[in-house]
């Protein structure tokens, strides 16, 4: 998951390799699963979507998890109240609050001002009540408590790490019990008592490379999650994980199967597969549901990632499908269909090559579909993003394959009236 820097990097994977026979077995299993899972998954099929190779453990749990970013209150001007006024709060089952930091082997506050100090006026507040100068808790945390009061069934988890702050997990993995203790104490700090229902870990990436490279070993992630479960007990413990199911990819670097017994669910980041970090292209949708003819890299898709997890032994009801509320784009593109060349990233409001759905739906409307998602060619720009129509298809796919639900990155990319989230449930 991206933090202040929003690129999810799938390049230069240096994860440790298993023995030859284990690799061959895993790849063969994943290949079978991908074949089964991708048949008839694109839009316009006959509606017959075959099950995964194994029988489902249970029916879809129907979770809808939305990430809310603490930095969104600044330039984006997106606040907890927007979750309410957009109608998103009525659709969500869980909110992941992003991000807490990981420093010195401990969980730490990411942005104290946004998190618990910023004062809200009556107009900005969820319940219409202004903060006072002397109240003990303000900021997003107080607003989220007010939101939970309006929606008693809504759960909130504090997510730690993300793209920018994942380097700290290498130190944390050296003493996972001490790390879990620090996280438990912070999440349950008396100042925001009753706010958090658990913890989400976003380590990019265990025993592999993201913004930096981790060499903690294949078992480090499992040991970390085991310690967190031991400390958090029956509270929620979840993890955002890589969506890279390619040969020798990041999903092979850590033992996600063994760690699955300690988590309530995984959130595989099934987006950011392609983008203008490859400045000359080829153009390709950043969040394809399945592989398609001409995809630049095989198994860079939602179906491939989920298939590999399930075939490795992760229960499908512990797997949520990742959905992006934003697009990735190039400029200098003349070809309308995917596979074109480019000269660089398209302009974006906050970062080149990235733009919110809210902006793209009118600035560069979708002109086609491929791999179960949408793309758009306008002028010399080429963008890919999900629309309400393609989200319907993805969610139907997730329900058919009896996954645990969906999650979205992130809430501020939607329209003010929640056009995308209303297409999910």
Automatic annotation (TrEMBL):
**Annotated SMART domains:** Glyco_18
Instruction: Give the protein's recorded name.
Output: chitinase
Family the UniProt entry places it in: Belongs to the glycosyl hydrolase 18 family.
Under Enzyme Commission nomenclature, its number is 3.2.1.14
Task: Give the catalysed reaction(s), semicolon-separated.
Answer: Random endo-hydrolysis of N-acetyl-beta-D-glucosaminide (1->4)-beta-linkages in chitin and chitodextrins
Q: Which GO terms describe its molecular function?
A: chitin binding; endochitinase activity
The EC category is: hydrolase
InterPro entries (alphabetical) = Chitinase_II/V-like_cat, Chitinase_insertion_sf, EF_Hand_1_Ca_BS, GH, Glyco_hydro18_cat, Glyco_hydro_18_chit_AS, Glycosyl_Hydrlase_18
Q: Which PANTHER family match?
A: CHITINASE (PTHR11177), CHITINASE 12-RELATED (PTHR11177:SF317)
Which CDD domains did the record assign?
GH18_chitinase (cd06548)
């Amino acid at each position: 998951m991206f933090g202040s820097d929003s690129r999810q990097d799938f390049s230069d994977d240096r994860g440790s390799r298993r023995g030859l026979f284990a690799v061959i077995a895993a790849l063969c299993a994943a290949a079978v699963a991908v074949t089964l899972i991708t048949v008839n998954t694109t839009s316009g099929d006959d509606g017959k979507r075959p099950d995964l190779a194994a029988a489902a453990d249970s029916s879809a749990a129907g979770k809808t998890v939305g990430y809310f970013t603490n930095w969104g209150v600044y330039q984006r001007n997106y606040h907890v109240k927007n979750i309410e006024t957009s109608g998103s709060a009525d659709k969500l089952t869980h909110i992941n609050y992003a991000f807490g930091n990981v420093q010195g082997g401990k969980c730490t506050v990411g942005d104290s001002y946004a998190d618990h100090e910023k004062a809200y006026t009556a107009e900005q507040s969820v319940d219409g009540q202004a903060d006072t100068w002397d109240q003990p808790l303000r900021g997003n945390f107080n607003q989220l408590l007010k939101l939970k009061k309006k929606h008693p069934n809504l759960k909130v988890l504090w997510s730690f790490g993300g793209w920018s702050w994942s380097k700290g997990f290498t130190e944390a993995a050296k003493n996972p019990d001490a790390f879990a203790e620090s996280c438990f104490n912070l999440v349950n700090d008396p100042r925001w008592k009753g706010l958090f229902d658990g913890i989400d870990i976003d380590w990019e990436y265990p025993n592999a490379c993201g913004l930096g490279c981790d060499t903690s070993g294949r078992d480090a992630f499992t040991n970390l999650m085991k310690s967190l479960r031991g400390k958090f007990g029956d509270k929620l413990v979840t993890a955002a994980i890589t969506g890279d199911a390619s040969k020798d990819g990041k999903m092979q670097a850590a033992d996600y199967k063994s760690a699955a017994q300690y988590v309530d669910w995984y959130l595989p980041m099934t987006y950011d597969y392609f983008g203008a970090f490859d400045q000359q292209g080829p153009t390709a949708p950043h969040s394809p549901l399945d592989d398609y003819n001409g995809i630049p890299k095989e198994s860079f898709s939602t179906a491939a990632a989920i298939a590999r997890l399930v075939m490795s032994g992760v229960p499908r009801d512990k797997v949520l499908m990742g959905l992006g509320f934003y697009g990735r784009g190039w400029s200098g593109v003349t070809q309308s269909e995917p596979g074109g060349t480019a000269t660089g990233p398209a302009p974006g409001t906050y970062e080149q090559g990235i733009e919110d759905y809210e902006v793209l739906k009118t600035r560069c409307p979708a002109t086609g579909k491929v791999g179960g998602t949408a793309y758009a060619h306008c002028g010399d720009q080429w963008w890919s993003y999900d629309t309400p129509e393609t989200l319907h298809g993805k969610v139907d796919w997730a329900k058919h394959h009896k996954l645990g639900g969906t999650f979205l990155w992130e809430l501020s990319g939607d329209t003010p009236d929640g056009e995308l989230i209303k297409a999910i449930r």
